[in-house]
Amino acid sequence: MAGTQYRGSEIKDVDQFLKDSAGLESEREKEIGQHIGYRYDVNLVPDYERITPFLKQYMEVMGWDDLNWLEDVHMGYEEGSPAVFDRNNNGWVRVPDSIELPDNQQDRDMIARELLIKFQMSDRHPLVALRKAYMKF
Amino acid sequence: MASMTDDDLKQMSQDERAKALGMTTEQLTGKSLYIEFDPEASERYTYPWSHDVDFNKRTEIDTDTLSTTEMNSAIRDRMKEGYGTIVLKNPRGKHSLGVGILNKLNLIVEGSCGYFGVGLIDGPNVRITGRVGWSCGENMMAGTVVIEKNAGSTFGAAMRGGDLVCRGSVGSRTGIDQKGGTIIVGGDTGALSGFMMQRGRMVVCGNAGKNLGDSMYDGTIFVGGEIRSLGVDAIEAELTDLDRQWLTRKLTQYGLMPDKGVDHFTKVVAGKQLWNYDNLEPSEKKLIL
Q: Do A74 and A129 share a domain, yes or no?
């Protein structure tokens, strides 16, 4: 069989990558000096019991019955800080220190979704300038 | 940037515009970009450049004599006028219909579409009453697309987000290179579905063809019927309570909930045996030297 066996480590604790930003646990990770795989569970589906009022309003405005594309948005970690990946910017957006982190991934994911929408829809988003620079008039 | 009007920008070349807007050609890979942003400052729900449309404002476009470009331009023109519900009549299997809509919108297509229908969309809710050709919903970013009849191959190829639903059956290589979002098939799906899937979810209520999930990197596939064969590195996993809740919610939403519930669904995930990190391993490099 091509390739090698997966030798990454399991995600055991919601604060794992806050306590240890490198997160090198398995032998293979220590050997190569790099964490293998995502730092969050990309397959975790949202718990709709935990949805925030802002996200409910967003769904209503867009005419959707659920979170739609936001189902794939999770809170991740960049250099030991909580962050959310912004696909429109191809980079991480750090969660401000003023936001208190809940003790579970589902609630953290809801915060990440809300923050990402607010950032993507603001005039401060880099895509606004990018669009102006490269749009067809 | 605030003092720069669209008219000013229009007079400039693309390079001049980029420079005037403070953009840089410097390689930023691996670097942080500091942007001041207050999450509590505003509560917008749509992109700053989006057209302000009203779902209750409805219009119809007869596409019979229109070319693809004319048809897609007509959709944009109606959105500019504030129409939030647009009905396309007589599409007659035209290709590339409704591509690149980056706005909230209800788009109803009365008939069938050809290749690359509603690709690259970010936001709209689309309903197609007929069939669709290859690559429907390719690179879709957000929104919902519901096809009432059957779909061709590479349904939802490289899809990144949103819900792509076919009430009938679909061809082969469904969700090839899927990077997010949800693909739902009411009937059967062909061979090599979920090939090189990277993340997202695929739900097949009927049967799945050969080599399901071949070389999948991550993501989840749920199959209600029989699986002809699993592809390389695709393995069965346990259906969790959260999976059941999510499946029930999603299938009910699109009127595809089976009478017998969702307990019979098989969950398929990546075995992660193909994850290749050899090129980073120092000890093996020594052997080569």
A: yes
Is B24 an 8 Å CB contact of chain A?
A: no
Asked whether the beta carbons of residue A72 and residue B43 sit closer than 8 angstroms, the reply is no
Tens of pLDDT, residue by residue over B131-147, are 999 999 999 999 999 99
**Range of weakest confidence among A21-30, A76-85, B17-26, B84-93:** B17-26
Average pLDDT, rounded, for chain A: 90
Q: Find the mean pLDDT for residues B223-252.
A: 97
- For residue B135, the one-letter residue type is S
CA B28/CA B10 separation, integer angstroms: 27
Range list of H helices, chain B? 6-10, 14-20, 68-80, 241-253, 282-288
Domain containing A29 equals 1-37
Q: At what angle do helices A105-120 and A53-62 cross, to 10 degrees?
A: 50
Answer yes or no: do A25 and A60 share one domain. Answer: no
**Does A90 reach chain B within 8 Å, measured CB to CB?**
no
Question: Both A14 and A75 in a single domain?
Answer: no
* A112 and A59 in a common domain: yes
B248: domain range? 54-273
Number of structural domains (chain B) is 1
Predicted local confidence at residue A32, as pLDDT: 82
- In degrees and rounded to multiples of 5, residue B57 shows phi and psi of -95, 110
pLDDT in tens, A117-127: 999 999 889 88
Residue B70 belongs to a domain with what CATH number?
2.160.20.60
Residue of B nearest to A124 (CA): B37
Closest C-alpha to B83, from B109, B62, B107: B107
Residue B289 pLDDT greater than 50, yes or no: no
Same domain flag for A81 and A127: yes
User: Per the structure, how many domains does chain A have?
Assistant: 2
By Cβ distance, the residue of B33, B249, B273 closest to A5 is B273
Cβ within 8 Å, pair B47-A34: no
Q: Verify whether the Cβ–Cβ distance A63 to B21 is below 8 Å.
A: no
